[in-house]
Amino acid sequence: MNSLPANLFEWENHLSALREMLRGATQGRGRLALVSGAVASGKTTLLNTFAEQAIESGALLLEGTGSRAERDLPFGIVRKIFDNGTMPADVRSEVIALLDGNALESTATGRMHVMSQISSALLRMVDDRTLVVLVDDVHCGDDQSLQFLLHLARRVRQAKVLIVLTESPRLRQEQFTFHAELLRQPNCVRMRLHMLTESGVAEALSGTLSATVAARLAPECHRVSGGNPLLLRALLEDWRTVGEHGEAQQRPAPGEAFAHAVLGCLHRGEPEVLRIARGVAVLGDACSPRLLGQLLDLSANTVQQGVQDLHQCAILEHNAFRDEVARTAVLDATPATARGALHARAARLLHADGASALDVARQLVSAPQDAERWAVPVLREAAEFALVEEELEFALHCLECAHHACAPGPERTALKARLVSVAWRIGPAAAESHLPELTEGAERGRLAPRDVAPITSYLAWSGRLDAAAGAVSALARTAATGDGLAMTAAVSASAQWLTMLSPPLRDRLPTVGTGATGATAGAPRDMADLAHAHAAATMSAVLTEGQADRAVIEAERVLQRYHLSDSTLQPLVVALMALVLAGRLDLALSWCERLQGECSARRVPTWQALLSAVRAEIALRQGDLQVAAHQARTAMSRISVQGWGVGIGLLLSTLIQAETGMGHYDEAMALLEQPLPEELFQTLPGLFYLRARGRCHLATGRYHAALGDFTAAGELMGAWRVDIPLLTPWRLDAAETWLALGDPGRARALAEEQLRLGSEDARLRGALLVVLARTDELKRRVPRLKEAVEILEGGEDRIQLAVALGELGRAYRSLGDFNRGRVLVRKAWHVAKTCGADPLCRELMPRHADPGELAAAAAQPGQGAEAQRDVEALTEAEVRIAVLAAHGNTNREIASKLFVTVSTVEQHLTRIYRKLNVKRRRDLPAKLSDSSLTGTV
Description:
This protein has 49 helices and 7 strands.
């Protein structure tokens, strides 16, 4: 591939024709060949190949190359031809003397006389040998050299001389006469070299690759290179380089070598061609000959010729670069100052031409200097269009440029607010550096009402609670002027939001209304502050004893009313958490999955991260530890730990509890080493974190540390006047810790205190009954545990159900009812196993079976065989459903796992109960054999 030609068949024909012309010249029939072709079409390769063959034939070879840099040097090419080591010394001396003589300064007649003498000197050498004169890039030659070559061509018709010249298809004005005179010579043959066709590319590739690989690569190689041999060679070099680094790549992709080849082609062409290529690169899809001429200050004819050259050498196709790598290479090679000036001028031209905001903005963003004032609305509009197309980084650049172009004032602050909301999509950490300026703008009253609630929530998320409270207070003082009612409404919503997130701020914030509307009911409301106010009121209902049902209704209203956007994301997440805390995990899961579906195909990491965090909390409360850990890890991967702000409390809480429940204590302890914002423990997420840390300490035997965390949570909730077990059941946690410390009295006191205070949550009541049962005497233990099991079976917390079933089974076993105890413990084990709660599984069945239980079962002959016969009466589908039901799966979960409808599951269970002679789901494990239980998928 080092000498890759153009169309191989065409190239071989030309080479064969040159050899035939050489044989004719050797016989005294002088010949002249003019080879034309675009840049990099293979002219030089053809010339060099023929030169080697001419030398092998014994011909005297004289070579020269035209150069634009030497175009003003008289007889530059002629000097190169005679500066040849193979030429006789006396002839070279004679010619050089003629060229250096005074004749060069004389009249045209004198110069013609000199050229005649030089020609005669040359022709004297052909008595014994054939003379071959090769001149590459003759179109770059000086006028005197072209006159000499034309003079020589007229004299070699009957001489042993072959002249081969190569030229570009586009000639200078002064070269037309030279070109026409050459073609008029009867012994002149014109040859054209074209770019490779697709079949030619395949043929060229087959020289170094297998035929199969060459045929596979040819279409893509031809598309990218356009058949340009130089570009094709570079493309293959890039492909091989990637292969050498062990990266399997089916299709060749242009890289560094290709970029250099593109620049090489451009520098080998006319100077204006490079300028035109830069203009095309800058304008991109907006390129047109008219705009290109205006951008570069070139005439229409010059632009037309330059674009034609770029098409001929396959750099362009349909007035655009064939590949983005080529365009990028041209832009990168353009000096920064010149490139910036081109982008700025292109922006003005496109704007005046009525181009779209996106096209104009792409130029403005690429220009290094600050945009002018006229560009601000264009950049804002472009940013919004870019967001629709999920071009987040470009939208950010647009807003940054617009912000820099604005003078300090409300408009600049509004741009910064929008910039922060867009940066938040990528990650809260990306918005951090912009928050101080927004805080200052808010304190000076420059923040628009529509931006107050979102910006307040961003400040609070980042842990800037004091700054958020100060900004809201400052805005409240300015609400009496301008958009007074709108600002009052926004301040009210923000105050409610901050109070909900951080109850200690309650006494520092202005009191401008209550509820979602409050005293500002008649004020114009923006969607953002309405969403924040409604979500805050919903969470407040959760934190008010006896209002859980109202909180569920309000949460669903929020989720139904507001669509997912930058300004409503946090309110929607709060509404989801309200459903979670109120115990409506089914509704929370349905809404969460719906919102996740909305943003699954969108490039909005923050939205996805927050929804994954909520999904993880739902899974944790359902007892699905593996899903909880996976969703939490996913959320953490989408936003850096630093970017989570005070939200890290909720995320770490979920993940720590999930890892602890699965027995991954090292992972859980490592998570406790994560640095936390100082303000975390002034917020609700701080309470979640305290509970998670305490549960981890409790599971790993650090009982006093656990008790300290639970008590601290209780003290904070008391001080904040939100001592609601739905938020965090610190008394339950502390009671379990006192049991572990061997003090059932204190445990019982805390559990009874919580029951007296009331508990609307069935999950919490069931757990409290289990704790109380563990402090009761054996006879009273079973009724409490049976009540706990009945309550928990109606809920969604499978881990707590497994705990209650295990305690009930052990209670029966202690009373001597080994069979019932075995069934319940085994059922508890299977429920815990499906949750991934390995420590609980080991606690329930350390050896997977109890020898005492097996002995008790063996003392009842025939029962096992009868149960086996019952199972054999079931169909294969019924066995699968029965086993999953025995494991504690709900009808909906069974339907999902077996890909059937819930109705089908219910019908099968009806037949299963009849065949096994049981009345309830909880009796299934006693009828199913161990092999059936362990054989489930």
